[in-house]
Known about the structure:
250 residues; alpha/beta; Rossmann fold; seven-stranded mixed β-sheet; 43% helix; binds magnesium ion; AAA_dom; DNA_Partitioning_ATPase; P-loop_NTPase
Amino acid sequence: MVISIASQKGGVGKTSSTISLAAGLARKGKRVLLIDIDSQANSSKVLLQNYPQISKQQTVFATILERSPLPSHETSVPNLSIVPSHILLSNTDVELTTAIDHREERLKKELDAVKANYDYVFIDCPPTLSWLTINAFTASDKVIVVVSPGYFELDSIVQISRTIKEVKEYFNARLELAGFLFTMSDPTVNSKTSLQILRQTYTGSVFNTVIPRNTDLRDAHFNKRDIFSFNAKSTAALAYNKLIGELFQV
Length: 250
Ligand SMILES: Nc1ncnc2c1ncn2[C@@H]1O[C@H](COP(=O)(O)OP(=O)(O)OP(=O)(O)O)[C@@H](O)[C@H]1O
Ligand SMILES: [Mg+2]
């Protein structure tokens, strides 16, 4: 199963959720591949100790720009591999806009060749609705949309829902919205109201599990660790574990 983790807004917890779901399932013995297609390369920097030494040919850049096979690397988490990203991926939208091949299928084509080797593939998307995100959605079975507390969130959800619908219509008929994941929840009125509005607006599509605001997550990633190896008893680790149970029944 291939799952994109996306949002149209930045800093909502996409990368943290991708790393936690991928590492959590890998620690339960599942074979997992994480594909980082955000040019910020945040999940690559957390999961690969030697990230600065990796050339752009060893990243997803090679697949998106040169249509080469996906270059995967082992991580320090058993059963978890990663296709890292590269800063130069930030220029690709211009190139893809003028490409005349099936530019939306470059990732899908190479992922289809290797995905049978994995139980789960997660794609950490950039915070924009670009050709890179369209490549991710075209290669995916499902999209998890990450939402954090805030008044402008609902507008961005409308836009990303439209993109999912368009990709489904034009490029990938089997694409489904897995649901909305509410992250960085805290006891403030703003957070409670945001979640309430989300549940009222998208009844049945918001996951029961909510991820609390928890600084252990930031500290874990700062120390290049996943939350389960950093602090398995933290509220974030417990919540992501619960989410894995809710979504994948493992
Ligand atoms: N549940 C949480 N509690 C506290 N801090 C969090 C939580 N989730 C993420 N963060 C922190 O918030 C910041 C943004 O998170 P993250 O990088 O996961 O978001 P993102 O959506 O991938 O961002 P971008 O759009 O820039 O890729 C990071 O510093 C991260 O450590
Ligand atoms: Mg990110």
